[in-house]
Amino acid sequence: MANIDPTYYPQSGLLVVLGAGESGVGAAILGKDKGFDVFVSDKGAITDHYKAILQAEGIAFEELMHTEERLLQAELVVKSPGIPGSVPLVKALKASGIPVISEIEFAAQYTNAKLYCITGSNGKSTTTMLTYYMMQKAGVNVGLAGNIGQSFALQVARFNYDVYVLEISSFMLDDMYHFRADVAVILNITADHLDRYDYKMENYVASKFRMIRNQTAADYFIYCLDDEETSKALPLYETKAIKLPFTQQEEVAQGAYLDDDKNIIINIPNKEIFTMNIEELSLQGKHNVYNNMASGLVAKAQELRNQTMKESMGSYVNIEHRLEHVACIGGVNYINDSKATNVNSVWYALESFSPDIILIMGGVDKGNDYEMLRDLVKAKVKAIVCIGKDTARIHESFEEDTDVIVNSSSMQEAVEMASHLSKKGDTVLLSPACASFDWFKNYEERGDKFKEAVMAL
User: Fold this and answer.
1) In terms of DSSP bridges, do strands 183-186 and 114-119 run parallel, antiparallel, or are they unpaired?
2) Per-residue pLDDT tens for 354-371?
3) For residue 356, is the peptide bond before it cis, meaning its omega torsion is within 30 degrees of 0?
4) Count of C-beta atoms within a 10 Å radius of residue 265
5) CATH class of domain segment(s) 12-101
């Protein structure tokens, strides 16, 4: 049985895909394979890579414009998660009664695979990759998609997996209506992307909790009991799913917790109890204990063997640009955490290292509240090197908490400054707390430029 009943949406006619990135091109290919007349429209320039794919597939497209008259003839629209619902074109499509959905929602109609779905403000990439790694180790026929890897729609079109591990962002969730997760994970909810949610935290929380809509009594809902926003929201969002909380602050009868000897205990009714000491985890730090608990609960709910889980959690290597060790030069460790695009991610990063830290931060400020970092900055950071255009608020927020705050004009200069400010035993940490779009194409390019600059020292 498909994840979504296909009678909810048109199954033929004109399929318009807005945005020609990974998710859009994947949706276009799946639409073509399912017999739609597909038209891809991107207001920006389409990269040569994706243009070549569309041409090879014989899919019509336009770039640098939206021909509204043509788009309004659509039976169904698949929208890139990067396009806000507030733009006039999207409003016009919806006003015309045309369903506007996400690539995930579209593709879920055409697969019977189990869907393990992970969202959260922080840690979702690590948890998604760790879960995928565990499933692979266990010999599961598994695909990896969502906010990571190849598009879900493309994999549904051209591959045949039994299980998908999906990293799901709030932007994707906003355009998902009938989708059902076999396992839904909400890791945490902290202020992020509030510019897309009228600067209202409750709107962002509501977006995250769309994850558990449509779940049945046979499904699992995994969540962090220690997360304030999640716990506050639980009574507001009913679910029939089996609830599996994870916590480092108390013992729970069902779910995951830490015992007095720092063992992770995972206990799910009618499944074998799992125990592993946190010292044995390949990913260290308090936040990674949470990530391992969440992945472990997914694995245990799906009856993976304890031995496979232990081997996976003990050998997994973290993803690029997330607390990635670049080099040790002159006794100074250089860490690339370019993926830290919000304040909470930086909190996790600072919590992972001992003093003294030279912190490189800045970029496009998304309405950040730096207050939660002040105690950690005071205790651990000896200097801040600012990058990007929005530096004034960093100066205002931390001028009383650290001895040195300086601005740089390039990543190379920032790394050179950090190198001069550091001594043996220190850590130079790129953890920006901001989006990257002022100086860089994306956080990956920002991280790569950091690594280049470090290796040039």
Assistant:
1) parallel
2) 789 999 999 988 778 888
3) yes
4) 17
5) alpha beta
For the domain made up of 106-315, give the CATH fold.
Answer: UDP-N-acetylmuramoyl-L-alanine:D-glutamate ligase (3.40.1190)
Pairing of strands 263-267, 357-361: unpaired
User: CB of 361 within 8 A of CB of 432?
Assistant: yes
Q: How far apart are CA 150 and CA 21, in angstroms?
A: 11
- For residue 133, is it left (φ>0), alpha (ψ between -120 and 50) or beta? alpha
Domain ranges of the chain: 12-101, 106-315, 324-455
Length of the chain: 457
Chain centroid to Cα 444, Å, comes to 14
As given in the structure block, the two tokens for residue 273 are 């109890």
Tell me if domain 12-101 and domain 324-455 are identical in fold: no
Q: What is the mean pLDDT of each run of 10 residues along the chain (457 residues)?
A: 82 97 96 98 92 97 96 97 91 97 96 96 88 96 92 96 94 92 93 68 86 96 95 94 97 97 96 95 85 97 95 88 86 92 85 87 85 90 92 91 94 97 95 89 94 96
DSSP state of 392: H
- CATH T-level fold of 324-455: Protein-Tyrosine Phosphatase; Chain A (3.90.190)
Could you list the residues known to form a binding site, using ranges.
120-126
Annotated binding site for ATP, which residues? Answer: 120-126
DSSP assignment, residue 210? G
Is 0.85 surpassed by the pTM of this model?
A: no
Strand-pairing partners, residue 236, are none
Specify the amino acid at residue 110. Y
